Amino acid sequence: MPAALPLLPAWLTERCVALNEHPLRSDRPIRSDRPMVLYWMRIAMRGHDNPALEAALHLAHALDRPLLVYQGLSERYPFASDRHHRFILEGARDVAAELAERGLTYAFHLERPGARGDHLLELAQSSAAVVTEIFPWKPLARWTERVALKADCSVLTVDASCLVPMPTVRAGVCDRAFRFRKATEKRRAEALREALPGPLSAVTGVLPELPFPELDLASADLAALISACEIDHTVAPVPHTRGGTQAGTARWAAFRDDALHRYHRRRNDPLSDGVSRLSPYLHFGQVSPFRIAQEALETGGEGAQKFLDELLVWRELSWSFCFHNPEHETLDALPAWARSDLEAARDDERSMLYDWETLARGRTGDALWNAAQTSLLIHGELHNNVRMTWGKMLPHWTRDPGTALARLIDLNHRYALDGRDPNSYGGILWCLGQFDRPFEPPRPILGRVRARDTAQHGRRLDVATYAARTRRPALTRPPRVAVVGAGAAGLMAARTLQDHGLEVRLFDKGRRPGGRMATRSSRQAPELAFDHGVAGFTLADHRLACRIEAWAESGVVAPWRPREGGELWTGVPDANALSRYLAADLSLQLACEITQLKRQDAHWWLSSADGERHGPFEALILNLPPAQAARLLEPFAEDLDPGLTEALTSVPMLPCWSAMAVVERGFDPGFDRLERSTGAIALACREASKPERTDRGCFTFLTAPDFAQAELEASPAAVAAVLAPEISTLLGRHVEADGVRCHRWRFARAVARAESSLDLATVGLYFCGDWCSRESDLEGALLSGSATAGRLLGDPPLGAEPTAEPEQVDLFG
């Protein structure tokens, strides 16, 4: 028997699985000489009705060692975003307070730049045993197994989520709800009659020093902390669904007292208040399913009976299914008949294929589906009855069933606050035939998998009313936002804010959006085109992976593989294509140079060079080089922050000259993309080597910063005269100076990076640009725009504060 189990009472042993102990040997024993027991808290974020916490306390009492409750929040978990981070951090505040009342020590570590490290394993090295929760989600299960392999003490996992413990359920009864319901009926009835044993007291003792600085959650600025994390900032927090036991308990109490009695009648109507909206709190264990079940039973009635069936049969069926089926993220999890039918129909003709971003932004041609996806994107939730229809449409819009499943998992887990949950897989896999029977006759694409289309659903739902409700911003008073500068960062910020329901207007002095994502051509000879701003770009950050794939699928970018090696991306058919794509549905005013700012009555007003006044706006984003931003703010910068102008001017930007030359069609000088460390020219590009370019002998040259600085105020003709001989040498043929066209980029590259603290949320002032990012060029700009949008949505300006209590916003009723 594993070493830890004899130390636990029977009600806990049936909930336990020892990960790194073999029944015939104790190669990972309890280290009774160690100074503490460690409880690694993850998805049972509560200090009450928590079997994992009580198991850890039983071990602490048996060993006479103090208990440390540790919770870490990584930047690397799948779909890490501002939304999930905020909900977890708000929940952690409640946990810290509740555990303090019980006299237990709780330590929370937030991974972020300057605060990273393998602290869990460091703590395990000082622990007699490690206790954590069973969570049958494959990525977290793999992580738990890796920790167990590396730890040199006993690691025990405990079911803290299901009334009928997962380890006691047979795998064979997890394929259909009626079988699971019957097989677990007796144990479920017993558990409903039995309250969990009372909590144990803390064990006194001295704990080892923590390997990281303690984070005071009660006073921490959560928005600032989240902003510093390298996570997906395009998925904003949901202020009307605040994390934590207090908010979850209040939501449950309101539902129990006002709506539980009619749950069986209203639960399928997304336009009523018929559902509990408790799933995020259950996912993170911030409310106790044991307590909720018992209170529902005490309430009684048909509504409570149906609610208990959903909570204890359908939810726990999904948990036990994932517990016994580690391949729940693949088609192998499906019943054989469904898998066979879907695979047989993979070549059936699809009327439409949508890329990831079109789906994620809810921009398909289907109004009901778009409304459902918008609910996920903005509000982090989706009514379960609509979710079934939402999920059933994906096989019709993706090239094969494997892609459909991957997209379902991505869209659900990325946006839903209850995503990444075993119950999510129950719903997602049901859309592809899991927990269901075959339906005859077979249909195209789905085979015998039950069909459920939006047209049919739309006949029993007022789609326009539903769409209007899901499009409402999550903020009670959403700010109107002005973005000055339609470069990549400004476009990304504006797009993210608009996707979250905010009113955004974008201004740029140029004739086209995109800044240095530019292409030069002429009306007389449009086939002579030069990408004279950015000569290819990299998008290596994992947070952009889905977007670059979608942009490639949409045909606005393509890989460029120059013969010198490596792979870059470039816009197609020109460098500006991506900017045009990003700007397509934005409110964008071009050829509009903003020359003056005014702040009046908590609002921003903008004046343009043509004398027009724009506003009012509660928030202002400046996507400008820092020196230009400083000049705009200079008249009243001291009123905003005495050090703002100084901070902006401390970020020097390097200039660059680009030169463009044409030789004969088909000419090949022996290079596609030539980087140089000497001379005036730092980079030479053969435009014809890029995808979807015509071979008209076009070449673009970008100069070194030293040369550009020395010739900063020279005329384009003078620069061409200096560069023509070097261009001739590079090409191996004479190029006349009057055949070279030059363009100056005064602010091409940041020498140093600014701190994110330049943003002043109290007055609704924000900055973005690659100079605000750790990365450079396009990748840095896109990430900066995302981060700025995330900061605004996570810490909105005064006058647009989030709802104080989740019950004050009625999304669907």
Would you kindly provide a written description of the structure presented here, covering whatever features stand out?
With about 800 residues, the chain is of the alpha/beta class. The chain is built from 30 helices and 21 strands. It has a 6-stranded mixed sheet with strand order 1-6-5-2-3-4. A 5-stranded parallel sheet has the order 11-8-7-15-21, covered by helices on one side. Strands 17-18-19-16-20 form a 5-stranded antiparallel sheet. Mean pLDDT is about 95; it is low at about 20-25 and about 800-813.
How is the biggest beta sheet arranged?
A: 6 strands, mixed
Helical content stands at: 25-40%
Number-wise, the strands total 21
Strand proportion: 5-15%
Mean pLDDT: 93
Structural class: alpha/beta
Query: Segments where pLDDT lies below 50 for 5+ residues?
Result: 22-26, 800-813
Number of helices: 30
Overall 3D shape: globular
Rg over C-alpha atoms, rounded to the nearest angstrom: 30 Å
- Span between termini: 53 Å
Q: Which strand order spans the largest sheet, edge to edge or round the barrel?
A: 1-6-5-2-3-4
